[in-house]
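Shape is hard to put into words, and the shape of a protein is harder than most. The fold becomes a row of whole numbers, each drawn from a learned catalogue of backbone shapes. The outcome of that step, for a single protein, is printed below.
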Amino acid sequence: MELPPSAQALLEAIQHYTPITDISTDQRQLINGSPESFITAIPIGLSLSKTFDQRQEELFVDYFSQMADDLRIHSRRHDITEIIDIANKILTQALELDDDHINLVLASEIIKCMKHLKLHVDDAIIVKVRERSRQEITDQQEYLAQDPEKVTENLVADLNKFGIDTGLAFCQFVSGELVFLTKQEIQGLLTMMSRQPWSIDALLLLSLNPEPKVADTAASVLNSLPAKKWKSLGQRQYLTLIQRFGHDSVKTHLSAWQKSAMQYSKQAEQHQVTELYLSYPDGNHAILFNGLLIDPTTKNAHVFGGVFRLGFGLVDSYFDTNPVDTVQYKKMTTEMDTAVDVVQCHPNILRHILCWALDEQHEVLDPDTLHMLALLPSQWTEPQPFSLDKLASTCDFPGEHPDAIARGHRSSKLLVNTPLIETWTIAESIDPTLDTIRKVRNRHYLEHPEPYIKALALSGLITHYSKQDSTPFSPSKLFIFAAAYALQAPDRMRKTFPLFDQLAELSMQQQAEYHPVAHGPQEIERPQGIVLYIELDNSRPKIWRRFTISNALPFIALHDCIQAIMGWEHQHLAMFITPFGHIDLDDESDTQAAYLPIGAALQEPGDTIAYVYDFGDNWHHTITLEKLNTRNCTQPKVTAGNGACPPEDCGGIDRYKHLLRLSKRAPLSDDEQEILDLFNMQDWDAKHFDKNEVNQRLKEEVPPIFD
């Protein structure tokens, strides 16, 4: 049976011992290009034969872990219930096979990985794998009853062998195995472990486990210990985290635990954040933070970090228990800066980010994250809902002031230089009914501004706490917060918001790449001339042209014609918006849509398409088919027109209208005169149009194609 392409690529990578870090972008896309690849990977792992060695099995786990993590990320926006159901059915059916036809080691690893990433696995599957792949723990429990000292001694030896010397390390060590243990088995394991000096920390962390059987059992073992055992508590902050994030059944024990902690343990000194860097790793309104924590006792530095995604909280985080050299850390951040834009910030920004993230927390916190939070000041980890007023006040912004809101509307276009702009486009989720830039702007962005208000506030927060010098192109926090307040205003729908015009434009352009024109006639059977009318939208006085062209010419040729007849200078990108979709005219695009004939979209008088030039200034044109000629047209020709083409890079139609008003005003200030001089508009004739001049340009730039 032929394997799906993703499964075949995965199998070949494992067979050739190719680490996941060494595969090309194309290979990665082939192996993990869609959520469905997660499903096709499971049979590969379950069927890996005994001819595959341990290293190849470990490679499979690496690849599968990446696929599962990508599926988890995908689940934040999409329903993956069907995919998870199929995965469970595959596991169930595979476990009906005998040992010669299923790799039980990898079956266990698949389940551990899914459980770790909070992907559902049926209890019956877990029980079946436990029964088939490992010795029953009940045998050990019987042995424990006979010689508990010996079993405990063996456990300690195993912990020492793997370097387990902290509560966090123990939780990391057993997290996968706990999936396959019953509550009684967990009780036996934790009871044996409770003699270790770090057991209080381990049990507190485990009492925050998302699985109730683990959390409740850890709490039970903790209650069975003598109160004096609490003198070995390393972090009192674990108790604060239980108060905030623990199961209700565990919180009932909190008062007694706090009393023992106060009586017997010492309050540990707070770790200090000495370095903090932020970056924008990907889309989805996310930021990555990475920093150094200094242990006040040992003076060791530890790397910690995470990803805060708006609306979801901390979606990824980590804490490196191994000390790191500060020089080495500096080198690491320098290398990271070459791959993504990194901003060094004052550590106090973390207080606002974490409180906000934890209030929006959707995903369960893992031991690494909990330990990291426990090392930080308590007030940094207290969940607090988003408040634009509070964050604005923190950043010394005047708040909801009429002048600030007006400035936010006017200056929003300046924000295109913020790195977050790349995460605000919606190419993959544009409603098909939103077929114009205006509709996308109004129906998506302006009707649902909440995510962008938060994103702007987060960007303003980073700008305020940044330790780096701003550039002339960097938007100030004043503009950023002003735009956020403008979006919060009830009358936002009645005012222009240039940033959202830009975002709508970019979204539709990107959609053309995701969903290029895939249908329509590839050639015209009987080429004929057509009369087209093109108008620059919202122009006053109207800027328009009427011209004749062949319906068999491709859209890329129509683009060249429009540049010539309107007066543009081929300095920016452009695209067509057609009934088939968006036709991207980027020179680096591999889409074939640009070579579809014009007649594929314009067939009957009255048919219209749009042409957008310069996605910054957003020159939006409407093209209408006025007439079908009986004869073909071998040379495009303009027959009428009106209005001068606006100067390139003058700022768009509204800015052009402002320049027209300036050109008629007298006297002018020095600044106003300088602006007109910049665009050569000193003696501007807005109605100027020379048909002969335009046709001569057409002949030079678009020569006859048809004989």
Summary: Residues 346 and 525 are 67 Å apart (CA to CA). The radius of gyration is 32 Å. Confidence is low (pLDDT under 50) at residues 135-146. The chain has 29 helices and twelve strands.
